[in-house]
């Protein structure tokens, strides 16, 4: 009889422990905002907690006394944040690595390295999380970094500089590397040269000591297009380039390191004399593609559905960004919201995204922050 009572008590204690354990976990989504700071030390990176039910954001942290932290990239595991620093300056910029404190919603500096060139514009991390690629816009170069286990960066192990040009003399007088993307299988890196109208493909060899990028293979884009950013489809079969100077999106088939042209699509709603197309992303479920258009006469997000059989796009419509110069935007991890950073009007506009139709509905709340230029979002599971 006594043993039965003890057994029941132990069972009750076990159930209580399980319940307490369940209650000690919390899920939170953090939003990291990188900003231009007018080329002087200022409030460069902001962190917010984002509510994936209401679309509301609550301020958590500001990193002050940094200069032009204009592009951010989270590590795959979310433990580390990397930022370009001192972009658009007349000397070499830098790359900073930060530890993410997901419990308190803040970041702590780990270390800083020279970026290997002028005006770092974009960061990309490979699928293993051990290598970081940096694109230097002003002197047309790519630099590669090894990432240590603690998230810190080693000095750059490889810098490749390019000499090239194209037909728009005030924008394409020289090579301008604007971004890069590792291939779905992580064997290749594709770098987008706005100044030369080329996508430069490289073999990516993680076993190499110094020359991690090898055997350049050039993909020639249409003259005057200015390839800027790129995204692979989650299925690994398609790729999409956004061209800043022509305002067009190019769809590709992707097969074993090769990009095969499919079709061009106009991203802007209206024809213009000057185009400034900027960013491009695909929704988490892979059904819709979005792109940002930065004036001079139209600030909008273009919305396309994706044919999953052949990768072709079908225009759904355009949504104004309710601000000027939407340099960067992000889709939250739940896929229910799309956030747009309007650099020239100091606001981040929040849209609720219809997962079935892809359409966007503006919410009343927005985030006010000086010159936002880059957004990163991630959901964290926190043990309390």
UniProtKB/TrEMBL annotation:
This is Lactonase family protein. Belongs to the cycloisomerase 2 family. It comes from the Bacteria. PROSITE patterns: PROKAR_LIPOPROTEIN. Keywords: Carbohydrate metabolism, Glucose metabolism. InterPro entries: Cycloisomerase_2, Haem_d1_sf, Lactonase_7-beta_prop, WD40/YVTN_repeat-like_dom_sf.
